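A quick aside before the break. I want you to see a complete sequence-to-structure record at least once, exactly as it would be stored in a machine-readable document. Don't worry about memorizing anything.
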Amino acid sequence: MTELFRELGEADRHALIRYAEFLAGQPATRPALPVATEPAEPLSPETPKPIPRPESESVIKAVKRLSESYYMLDKNKLLNETSPLVTEHVMYGKAAEEVIDRLETVFEEHYQAYLERWS
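That is the input. The structure line, written in tokens, reads:
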């Protein structure tokens, strides 16, 4: 695994580290949330907060933007679909714009499933 990391260019190494930090839940200085303080279930489905897509955006920033927009979705469920897409970009050089388009589709599909659970 470290051999793969060493083969990456400096920019890709930084992108991979930023992605690992994202997956780890951001900096370790973040205080842990108490287990007993889960928010109450909303009375109706929540609406995404639209955050416009910048003209030039990294894949990692797109994941953060979409996570913030679709704050009501289960991030663990999304991880199963978003992490392979990010890997395609970071490790295999798939174009950022193409990956971000797919990420937006994944978040929208999960949101539609969220809405269906309210029906």
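Two observations worth writing down. The chain has one domain: 2-28+50-118. The helical segments are 2-7, 10-23, 59-69, 75-92, 96-118. We'll return to this after the break.
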